[in-house]
Each structure stands twice: as C-alpha cells, then as structure tokens.
Specification:
alpha/beta; Rossmann fold; 2 domains; 7-stranded mixed β-sheet; 5 helices; binds S-adenosylmethionine
Length: 193
C-alpha cells in the first residue's frame, strides 16, 4: 500500500485500462471521420421539362425501378412514378431536402411506389435499379463510377444531366432547352453481359 491508500497494481492496471479506452475512442473517431458522408453536389433542381426528357431518354418503362442519387425535392422520383408508372427510390443526404421529398411523395399519394432514403448515396445498394438518374458533378460521377460498375445489373441505364461519366461511352447525348437555358443529357447503358 502507498500513502494514498491505492495499491500500485490497481493504479497500473487503471492506467492501462484508461490508455485502452483512449485508444479505442481515437480509433472510433478516426473511423467516423473515414466514413463521413461527402456532399457530392450542391442543391440545384432540374427544371420539370428536363426531368420528363431525362426519363424519356432513359426509356423508363412501367414497373421498372429508378434510383435518383441526390434526389433533392424528389421531383424526379415523383415524376417517374406518376407519369411513367415506375417504382422509384430517392437518396438524399440533406435531412431537410429528404423531408421535403418525402412530403412531396406523400402529398401526391405516391408512397406505394416511391421510397425516400435519407443518407449517403455511396452506401445504397443499386443492384435492383433499371435506371439511375444523376445530376451531380463530373468529379462526383467519377467517384460513383466504380460503384455503378460493381452493382448495376447488365443492361441498366444511367441518365446524367449536364455531367458526363468519364471513361464511359454515352449511348446518346441530347441537347435540350428549358426556360431558355440549354441542357445536355447523357445516356449510358451497362453492357448486356
Ligand atoms: C444538383 S442536386 C439534384 C437534385 C435532383 N436530383 C434534381 O435533379 O432536381 C444534387 C443533390 O445531391 C445531394 N447530395 C450531394 N451529395 C450527396 C450524397 N453523398 N448522398 C446523397 N445525396 C447527396 C444534394 O444534397 C443535392 O440535393
């Protein structure tokens, strides 16, 4: 026993335990930073005539599954369900926008066809998608490309507004005007196998 009344072995083992807790905490913090979702594009909406054009160019059919990665206020997923009879999933990082998208879906009575996921698009499984809609940035598309290559089924289509997917050859490039502004829509198709 020492004068403090605390045995030496106890102080030693406490120090080891504390060091362990600190190291585990630091590792968890590090991991949290590593998996921190990244904002891949700012919020800008696609004009409604462009939304319809994108879905037409993608050849979206009744009953098919569309994913909008970064769905903003949900206009693409709502249009896919309402005007094309598709099922749709919108993924949105911003809680406020995800809430707005969910409210838009509910106010149009589309809950059976459309699901809104609040979260990071990089963590969402895309294997059921027939069509993926993107309105991101060139660098974001570049970051997403390996995930699309890994998860999309043969023949799935990707329609991207304004920004190409580097390294992929578009099946179609369409210039469209809306509200006196020119837009470019890129259509890609994964190999049939
Ligand atoms: C240019 S807006 C497109 C909105 C909508 N798709 C449209 O065309 O009207 C891009 C959206 O992606 C969202 N976003 C950015 N990074 C994201 C991420 N890592 N995961 C999910 N959404 C993300 C932004 O919050 C924003 O709403």
């Amino acid at each position: 026993m020492r004068p403090s009344g605390v045995p030496t072995w106890f102080r030693r083992s406490s120090a080891v335990a504390l060091a362990g807790v600190l190291l585990a905490g630091a590792a968890a913090g590090q991991q949290r930073r590593l998996i921190q979702p990244q904002k891949l594009a700012p919020y800008v909406t696609s004009p409604q005539p462009i939304v319809v054009k994108m879905l037409e160019i993608a050849g979206l059919k009744h009953g098919e599954m569309l994913y909008d990665l970064g769905c903003g206020d949900g206009r693409i997923v709502a249009t896919a369900a309402k005007e094309f009879g598709a099922k749709a999933v919108g993924v949105e990082l911003s809680p406020a926008l995800a809430k707005r998208a969910r409210e838009a879906v509910e106010s149009q009575g589309l809950q059976q066809q459309v699901k809104i996921i609040e979260g990071d698009m990089m963590g969402v499984d895309l294997s059921s998608a027939d069509v993926v809609a993107l309105y991101l940035l060139t660098e974001a598309n570049e970051q997403l490309r390996p995930k699309l290559e890994k998860e999309l089924k043969p023949g799935a289509r990707v329609v991207s507004l304004e920004f190409r997917i580097k390294g992929w050859k578009p099946a179609r490039v369409e210039k469209v005007e809306a509200h006196r502004h020119p837009y470019t829509i890129y259509l890609y198709q994964r190999p049939q196998k």
